[in-house]
Amino acid sequence: MSNAPASTASLLRLGLIGLGGATRQMLPSLVRHPDVCLAGAADPRKEARERFADDCDARGYASAEALCDNRDIDAVYIATPHQFHCEHAVLAAKAGKHMIVEKPMALSLDECDRMIAAAEEAGVHIVVGHTHSFDLPIQRMREIIASGELGRLAMINTWNYTNFLYRPRRPEELRTELGGGIIYNQIPHQVDMVRLLGGGLVRSVRAMAWVLDPQRPTEGSHLSFLQFADGAAASMVFSGYDYFDSDEFHFWVGELGEDKPAARHGAARAALRKSGGAVGEAAAKSAAAYGRPTSPDWIHAAPVHHPHFGITIASCALGDLRAAADGVIIYGHDGRTEVPVAPSRAFPDKMRVIDELHDAIFRGMPPLHDGRWGKATVEVSLAVLESARERREIQLSHQVPVRDAGGR
Question: Considering the entire predicted model, what is its pTM?
Fold first, then answer.
């Protein structure tokens, strides 16, 4: 399938580094984006490269280095395992490639600094793809908060209960030091949404996190309290233990905007038990990878509703706002009002991540989710872990504000 657009005036020729689960979710947006042409993909797995070549009519490369050597590629999407983000971002920058980096930006502030320095030296843009802060209801909430129409922001609460920890995992995905568990995989989504809604400048973090299953020896849940520089505050809760499912409170709409069967609590745990231990889990993980004959089709039908990441409510002096399946619900002096939020173009909404990089390259609009924004989100996520382990409040020093009209 060729995805080349009719016009090449502002064509972004994009290469993919890594053909794993994140890329499979992003591919529908990349293929359908009118200003993107997929120009290649790098992955060590031959079957993944061959399927990509068939699916997208573009060349596969055995290494990131080989892909970055292609001068016809303008930018790359980095979706390799977390521990390789820094290495691949520096490689891409030195090759003069702009980049979208999957969350988390990196595993340490040091790595973030190396990525930022490499990009600035090469004069290329970084967009860090915490995709749920791009969700249109969250963006609309930010606009309402920034407008001041509901008065001063006081607090933000976001919580998400999922089956995250019981989906098939590779061994390193259950080791925190290698980027496993919720600290690097789920908390960054919450932090990025909360920072966007609250203006970006988190002053301190106090948190607790738990490892509740010795068979999955990484953090699977947390409760965190964030203070902003202007006096607002936020609480974040996440549990990946496959008990309660917070989509019950979100109209039984799933994370990607799909209608979701109700009352499937514990189904992921049950499937994992039936897989036959570590060997069976590894086989299930492998079977779902892009390029395998049994892997899911990546060209998904357009979801019915907006993507979301749990329940998010912001409270202002004159009312509360809630991100909903099809817009934003405002609870004010006159009762409950739903503000519909239509997609900016056909779903899926991951296109907005691509738009931000495209606008930076072709329209000179500095991206909000740049390297320093990504580093600030990593700082908060690491502070959650540090606070939980040391049982104390952590002060922050690398935060940056939202750029908007009250954004951009």
Answer: 0.94
